[in-house]
Each structure stands twice: as structure tokens, then as C-alpha cells.
Amino acid sequence: IGGGSSPVTNNSANNEPSNNQPSNDQASSSFGAPSNPRGSQTGNGTVQWEWDAVSGASNYEVAVDGAQYHVTSDTRFTSNGLWNGEHSMSVKAINNNWQYSEQSNTVKVIVSDNGGNTTNTQVSNPQPTPIVNNPPPQDDNGLIDPQSWGMPDASREGYELVFSDEFNGNSLNPARWNTQLRWDGEFNGERYEYRVINGEDQFYVNTLAEDQEHLNVVPQLHNPFQFDGNRLAIRAVRNPQYTGNRGLTHGPLRDILPQQPFLSGALTTYDKFNQKYGYFEARIKIPSATGTFPAFWLHHQNQRSQGTARTEIDIMENLGHAPWYIYNSFHYFTNVSTNYGGDDHFIKPYPSGQFSNGTNFSENYHTYAVEWSPGYVAYYLDGQRISELWNGAVDRENLYIIMNLAIGGDWTNFATNSGGLGRAGNDHFPNQNDINTWQNPALEIDWVRAYRRR
């Protein structure tokens, strides 16, 4: 298996709307979008954003990097702790009835180490929302993104769409997603215990957590889920609370958070959407960075106490130091019980679980998919079947979707003939140079969809 927006601080008045106020999708035509959005770097990692006042507006909703939202009554907003690179801001006006204007143009600022001496701003028009064409009347419980019905490629002969997210909005839909990775059907991060998986080096930021301690601490350090109106990026950054003291495999937040060098994100549909068989696909751009471990995979819904073979279908895995290779595989266990994890079976598809055609898959988006039917799984890349397997164990249970960006881990440190970095045992990733030169890579997701046979 495989495993942002920086901290943003509002220095202006902050008046959050209550839950019974209209959605920010309810745009008002009675007043216009804020004009003249602008930004300038005022210090290391600090940008001051501004815009012109709108007549009739009492508040403004500010979106930084498409993911951080703040409501202010001022016409300026300050972001702190931004990494070097490009950052964006857009803003909507809100009147006294909590009606929202259209979104402003987007302003972009390149943050550098020059401490505000260099500013590069660029304003672009927001992308139009695709037209929804004749959405079906059935109730999908929010599992299907309505924008999918207007997408010409969101249909498959013999299948019906049952789950989708186009990621054209501004935030994650909690009806579809969790931001918590459960491991082998057991909770990770709930019951106030966190686990280190496969020796990996990230701590997952759970922005949709029910644990208030987590919400009070971790998302304030980094929000890995960034939106630009057309796609979602899961971005990994250095953990500002990292102490260098390693060695624990599980424990409470206060122990595990500071021992992990990086912060990253994971999306799952556990308890939201799962099914047996079907067609699962996502259009993804993987990062190219030593230590990254992006994955798109299916995992078992049941816990051990509920009966499980701990089934896992890996649709796409990659190690960032070798973006020319994509891995497919299938895992299951026998003899699983509440007291025993079971006996592992690792199945590679035919002709190989490692695919390469000379393409650097980090340079563009590619569509990764599996077609899963009784006793059979076929793996696809950009619509072309690249491998397949026949095994009755694939029929054992329902699976849910996971998309995540892990960092490091055991596989990264394998020998080169097994795909790893092949470093000496005393120089495993991440060494201090790996941490110092980290450039905040991201797994970019254009869309994800799932279908079932008609």
C-alpha cells in the first residue's frame, strides 16, 4: 500500500457562519464579486492579501490555496507560515442574509526567501463550472458528484456510476470521504491511538476528525488537502513538531506526532462507500520526489471481528525516486482471527506487477483503473489493459477506496532490485539531507469514479 496548504492565520476579525446559514454555493446576484484581488509578501512565509470593498457586503470568505477558508469583516487577510512557491487567494462577498457573491478572480503570489523583496502576482479568471446535463432522478446519498453527469468520459458500457468526485469544488465532501487511514480494518487515530504503518514516515492530518485534540493541533500545522477549482492535491510537508526521536510503533497523539518527520494526507471511503466487483478509476498525477509513496487502492471494509480476509487490490503504487514504474498487486490473508493477523498471500498479476513503457508518469495525468469481476481483476492504464490475474480469493469481501500519499517506509529502503533506494543500512530514508531538502511534493487527483454492473 501507499500512505498542502500551509498554516494560515487570520489577523482580522473572524466571524464564522453558523451551520444553519446558507451554503457558499448559494451565490447572490444582488451584489458583485470582490474586485482587484492582490497580494504581496511582507515577510518570510507571510503574504498580505487585499481586495476592494463590495457595497452591501458585511463579511468576506477568503480561500487560500483553494483549501483554507476564513470569514472576515475586513478587506485584507494575512497568511503566515507559507512554504516557498506559488500560493493563491480568491474571495467571495457575503451580505447580512449570508448570501454569497460569485468568486473573485484568483490572485497568485510566489513566496521566496527574500522576505518580501520579491513579489510576483498574476490574476486569472476562475474556471467555469461544467454544465450538469440531465442528472438521474435516483437518490445517491451524495456519493455521486453531480458534475460527473456533465462529463463525457463518466460513463462505461454495461456499468452504472455509483460513486464519483470531480474535485472541482473548494473542500472535501464528508458524505464521501474520511481523512483517516484505517489499517487492516482496525482504527488508526481513533481511541486516541496512532500507528506507524510499514515503517512509514508521515503523520496523516485528519481534517475531518471527531477527535477534538487532533483538530486543535494537527490541521493547524498543515492542511494537506489543496483545491484549485479543478483538482485536489494531497501535499506532504516537513513536520514542524518533529523532534528526531523515533522508535515507537503506536501510541497517543502527543507521542507519535513529534516522531514523524512529515505531515501528509489520506482519503478513504470506509463506511461511506464500498462494494464487491465493479470498475474503479482515477485520473492522477504522481509526484517525482525521493521518498514519496503515492497509492490508489481498494481495502477491506470488515474488521477482524466481523470476518475478513484482509483483502487489498493495489490499483496504482509508485516510489517517487522512480516515476517510470507503476505497480499493481493483490493481497489477502487466510486464517485471520481477532488474535491472529493471518497468513499473507501476495499475488502479482500477469505478465508483471511492475509496469513501465518509458513514460515518466509524474509529468502528466494518467488514468489508473481496475475491472473487478468474480475470480478476475484486470489493471488498466489510460484505458489499456496492462496486467490481469485470476484468483478466487478476490471474491471474498466488499472493498472501499483509498487514495493517499505516504512517505518513506520499508519498501522505499529495499534494495534497488526490489524497487527501493538501495542505500546502506545506516543511510535509510529519510536522512537529515532528505528532510532538509524536502520540496513539499503532492499527489494530484483530477477525479475518481466507481461503477457497478447493470
Q: How would you characterize the overall build of this protein?
A:
With 454 residues, this protein is mainly beta. The protein is 4% helix and 35% strand. The protein has helices at residues 212-221, 253-256, 432-436; strands spanning 38-43, 46-50, 59-64, 68-72, 76-79, 85-94, 106-111, 121-124, 159-165, 194-195, 202-204, 225-227, 232-235, 237-238, 250-251, 262-264, 266-268, 274-275, 278-285, 292-300, 312-317, 326-334, 343-347, 354-355, 366-373, 376-381, 384-390, 399-407, 442-453. The strands form 6 sheets. Strands 9, 12, 13, 19, 25, 26, 27 and 29 form an 8-stranded antiparallel β-sheet that branches. The model is unreliable at 2-29 and 116-135 (pLDDT under 50).
Structural class: mainly beta
Rounded mean pLDDT score: 85
Radius of gyration from the alpha-carbon trace, in angstroms = 22 Å
- What's the overall geometry? globular
List low-pLDDT spans. Answer: 2-29, 116-135
What is the β-strand count?
29
Helix coverage percent: under 10%
| Through-space gap between termini | 30 Å
What percent of residues are in strands? 25-35%
- Largest sheet: number of strands, sense, barrel closure: 8 strands, antiparallel
